[in-house]
Amino acid sequence: MSVVNPELRATDPPDHRVGLLTERLRDQFGDQILCEQATLTGMPVFWVSRRALVEVLTVLRQLPEPFEMLFDLSAIDERLRSRRHGLPETDFTVFYQLLSVSGNRDVMLKVALSERDLSLPTVIPVYRNANWYEREVWDMFGIRFEGHPNLSRILMPPTWKGHPLRKDHHARATEVDPYSMTVESQETEQQALQFRPEDWGMQRQSDDTEFMFLNLGPNHPSAHGAFRIVLQLDGEEVIDCVPDIGYHHRGAEKMAERQSWHSFIPYTDRIDYVGGVMNNLPYVLAVEKLAGIKVTARIQTVRVMMSELFRITSHLLFLGTYLQDLGAMSPVFYAFTDRQKGYEVIEAITGFRMHPAWFRIGGLMQDLPKGWDRLVQGFVDWMPARLDEYERAMMDNSLVRDRTKHIAAFDTANALAWGVTGPNLRATGCNFDLRKQRPYSGYENFDFEVPLGNNGDVFDRGQLRIEEMRQSVKILQQCVNHMPEGDYKADHPLTTPPPRERMLEHIETLITHFLQVSWGPVLPANESLQMIEATKGINSYYLTSDGSTMSYRTRIRTPSFPHLQQIPELMRGGFVPDLIAHLGSIDFVMADVDR
Amino acid sequence: MTYTLTRVEDALAAENARYPLGERQRVEDPMQQQVHRSVFTGKLEEVLNSTVNWGRKHSLWPYNFGLSCCYVEMTTAFTSPHDIARFGAEVIRASPRQADFMVIAGTCFMKMAPIIQQLYDQMLEPKWVISMGSCANSGGMYDIYSVVQGVDKFLPVDVYVAGCPPRPEAFLQGLQLLQDSIQEERRPLSWVVGDQGVYRAEMPSQREKHRDRRIQVTELRTPDGI
Description:
Chain B: Belongs to the complex I 20 kDa subunit family. Chain B: It catalyses: a quinone + NADH + 5 H(+)(in) = a quinol + NAD(+) + 4 H(+)(out). The structure holds two protein chains of two kinds. Chain A is 38% helix and 15% strand. By secondary structure, chain A is α+β, with helices and mostly antiparallel strands. Among the domains of chain A are: 116 residues, NADH:ubiquinone oxidoreductase Nqo5 subunit (Beta Polymerase, domain 2, 2-Layer Sandwich); 249 residues, Cytochrome-c3 Hydrogenase, chain B. The radius of gyration of chain B is 19 Å and the shape is globular. Chain B starts with a strand and ends in an 11-residue tail after the last helix. At the A-B interface, α4 and α9 of A face α3 and α4 of B.
């Protein structure tokens, strides 16, 4: 076992702007800024008083290099946390993570709340995408947001009792009575899900027409899984709509609080379930930051290669379903044939298709098998011609163009205000790709371009992903040509599982190996965060360790959640077929929304 | 062969009835009794039954229903490389009223369970359920507050497909097992013929069937080659 270091290590890269920002906030708000917390998150973390919160956010939003995006908002139940020296007294902490695209930096604000008074002012007037995040915090922690227009449950059923992410809420389904459903309870649950327009400030009729309310989902062929959206219609025209999520909530964040650091890896695969090992990456990188592990160039390159393979299979799935939603039947058959080719490579290397859980803390599950380069090269040779064909047959098709050009278009400012990231953000012409802006896992060594769109419409979102696949193929080719030699596990005491040869030296190494495999590694108490450019946008893991074998709190920020929140603003005044086209172009899976 | 019998009238919902609806009882093959009654009608029913079952099992229309990751593998089974049309099950229906079977492909969430039940109720008899993947089979790796620990807590399941997610080939095997079981079924040939019960064959467990062959394996392929 490694020795737990109780001292918090400060973030290393010195950024003079952080000092300026601290000075600025201290000058203006004085002792309302309670303290600055040293973490491994790579960004300044300020504790602010509840009174000053909205003002501080407003100032940060209006800086010369403004924090345009509310990247994440969630909470931590701190009642059982023991290692938090020098931080303000708190039972529940709500954190606001802001992202500045213009300044390429982040900041986090934390607010301490006492158990007896769990309420905060809403920040929707400053960041409108706070709406769903605040509902989620209410649902999961029971913290009220004063002034919120409709503070109702978002992930759990409306009939649910309790707040699942509180430490005193049960985690396992088997801790309580087994689930059963009666004819009566089924009816009650269905009634509770009924949509009441008045709750959302909607009119049932206008002066000259009575609106129709159409319930689309939670099971609809073009809703891509268990997603429900209620439309207020005047004929074919969408007057307003209300997305309803939570039909796919698997409690991944609660799960992280009872799995060891190592055994949580398979759960990450199933967050964005078409992203495979790409999901492991932000998690293992964040854990490696906590543990202080530096991995070899080979590990970095293999991770990049597998992630890009999964980016291609994910984008192929997108392309097939996107065109199918527009009414084209054949593309999905072509796209899935190519996915199969991709999976042949993935399976030969990792041993599984969709969820290999192949990355490890401090390395990989195993080294690349003999002959991997031949397989990857085969895939790299196969794809470009297919991509050209798709572009010619699908994106040059006049019907597709008519259906998608200038539909559900939004500009960069709107995207940032809603927290839109990834290809959907780049389709508006905003050049923000973490692989370039904040290279991780050795992306700085690769030669590739970041494709951009112009109009931010349904067409650009489709076209851009074809282009992204070309760039990923280019990265794969570089991996084949320049795969570095080296170990597939980092030489570090917290590498999990530890190399087996080390176990065979004497009884001490055997015991250490046994403990690390059975209990799992003990990570130093600290907080770390890692963002990556995942298939659908920016995915980040914010880990809080209390110096134990399990995470104290794991916050998973997924890109699809804000993408769905943006729908109503785009669709007002559009037509139902435009909505379907837009749903197809967002590229979301419900596990990436509800987690 | 022994059968599980569900009577039609039992499946009508009473207030406070608990899902899955209907009493199930284990019985002997009703055909045996028929044979004792009369040799000729017994033979005729057997021919009719197997003809109808043959038709049913080769034109199963799946309901387009998916919950999570397993649905992607299920869709993969529908596309060219795996081509489910080989088994006559490619006519995906978007409406439960037109579908013959429903694949619970993914995690069964407590928020989703009442909706799944309603969709199942909207399907017309004869109807079947395939539970695809560990989550639908038993909750799998998600023993968590929001997940029902197996869809069979409220739906009658015909075939369980193991895996997380199962490969498309495993799903296709599950479909063939369903076909085998449909071939053995005894359903009323008309509303005036015979006993109005649905007799489902108790099919042999695949695990037991293959155990002997599987434990023969002594050497596994090393993972360092392709």
